[in-house]
Amino acid sequence: MTRWPLPEPMRRALDEAARARDLGEVPVGAVVVKGGQVIAAAHNAPRGTCDPTAHAEILAIRAAAAQLGRDRLDGCDLWVTLEPCAMCAGAIVHARIDRVYYAAADPKGGAVEHGGRVFAQPTCLHRPEVYTGMGEAESANLLRTFFRERR
């Protein structure tokens, strides 16, 4: 079986997830790409910031919006290591992100393919293209190991 290298944005997101793990945060990382260039990268930080909204996706979206000087991120892609939750999916919609790439599915907390399926709702204002599975094994392993060590 041939293993293809991961696209650089997913590699960066996985590196961010490892940083989160090293800080005692749930290992999730995200990057925003525009024109083939990473313009923002972040990892989960709710515990360290005492902010329950400090998910990797939210932090990366905020940083990208600041970098571009605008609230809409049309023309941008989000690469994240775990299926976004409902809060993050809502932020993706409001930011008007073009494409979302996520590594591992999250049957318990995800809201793209699971749970509320935010992008599929008739009231959804914007529907990004969604691609899954790149980096899934590495992301799932980071998460499993993190939670196993805490039990």
Describe what you observe in this structure.
This protein has helices spanning 8-22, 46-49, 56-68, 86-95, 136-150; strands at 29-34, 37-43, 76-82, 99-104, 129-132. It has 151 residues and is α/β, with parallel strands linked by helices. Strands 2-1-3-4-5 form a 5-stranded mixed beta sheet. Helix 4 links the parallel strand 3 (76-82) and strand 4 (99-104). It is globular and about 40 Å long. The model has no long low-confidence stretch (mean pLDDT 96).
Number of strand elements: 5
Rg, Å, rounded = 14 Å
Given helix and strand content, the structural type is alpha/beta
Strand order of the largest sheet: 2-1-3-4-5
Largest sheet: 5 strands, mixed
Order of helices and strands: HEEHHEHEEH
Which residues form runs of ≥5 with pLDDT under 50? Answer: none
Tally of separate helices: 5
Q: What separation lies between the terminal Cα atoms?
A: 35 Å
Instruction: Determine the mean pLDDT.
Output: 96
